[in-house]
Amino acid sequence: MSSSRRSRQASSSSRINDDQITELISKLRQSIPEIRQNRRSNTVSASKVLQETCNYIRNLNKEADDLSDRLSQLLETIDPNSPQAAVIRSLINE
């Protein structure tokens, strides 16, 4: 069997069908607060769900960065050998 034929077979077996896409969009609708809070969340288009999901992930990343910065600032103000410092370092490194 040629390598191009094998790669086509492998890619076709890993493709997501329409039902799976619908199920994934439904799960995202339930997971994203901005959509879940909408009374008519089932009428939100798939493209809007994906857009809101991207925005939500960006916001989560920003919040995580902000919290990491705040923890780093807090770490500078306490005894580096204290148990609290160890906890803060573990949080920053996760």
From TrEMBL:
Keywords: Coiled coil, Growth regulation, Nucleus, Transcription, Transcription regulation. GO terms for biological process: regulation of DNA-templated transcription; regulation of growth. It is found in: Nucleus. One of its GO terms (cellular component) is nucleus. InterPro entries: bHLH_dom, HLH_DNA-bd_sf, PRE. The keyword Transcription applies. Residues 50-77 form a coiled coil. Gene3D superfamilies: Helix-loop-helix DNA-binding domain. It comes from the Eukaryota. One of its GO terms (molecular function) is protein dimerization activity. Residues 5-60 form the BHLH domain. Its main location: nucleus. Pfam families: bHLH_ILI. This is BHLH domain-containing protein.
